[in-house]
Amino acid sequence: MASNFVTTEWKKNLLFKSDNPNGAQILMDTSFQNGGNEVGASPKALMLSSLAGCSGLDVVLIAEKMRVSFDDLTITVAANLTDEHPKYYDKVHMTYHFYGADLDQEKLTKVVNLSVEKYCGVMEMFRKFAEVSTEIVFNIQ
Question: CB of 78 within 8 A of CB of 96?
């Protein structure tokens, strides 16, 4: 069974530095309003970035294998945070924005669906606690 190990170190105030198994490091903090210094990313927002990043990696790799191309891809994630503690995302909506002159919409839809339904592990984790919806926008240039 594969496993990961990270170390998260308190730096000062509400700032933390965390490593990644590949050696990359990130800073996490909170807003001024919540007593932080806004030096690092919000831990909850990082979850949304992880979701988009995981699916984005899938999309690029699957598209390459299917020989379908696009010039650019942007993934936006909108999430609803519950009001009561512990606050968590209960609804998440992802939008895949493809850009290019000759977009094969049918194949790109299949690519996204493979990521969403089969390959993205972060997506599967999100489904354990949130209602996740997706949409695809094709921007023909």
Answer: no
